[in-house]
Amino acid sequence: MLVPICVLAIAPDNSFESRTSHYLVESFANMLDPAVLGSEAWKEWTQRVHAIDSRCLDAFQGKGNLHACNDAIKELEETYRRVKKEADR
Fold first, then answer.
1. N or C: which end of the chain has fewer CB within 10 A?
2. What is the pTM assigned to this prediction?
3. What is the pLDDT of residues 42-60, one digit of tens each?
């Protein structure tokens, strides 16, 4: 499954607005069993999503390079797999 690591929208003032937390944490949580939301994997997922969000925004604005975040992206992928495994139980 392909999962985004960042969701951005264009705000009325033409700046970029992060919608990452809304979609990758809040909306995702609504799809999961409450037991999953209490797991260490879910806690780690939310922490990692929030940690990489500003780096993604910087990259999108040309102020950063996501290639410098390969380790963080890999860790996020591994954490997603753990959340999915919890959800599949």
1. N
2. 0.89
3. 999 999 999 999 999 999 9
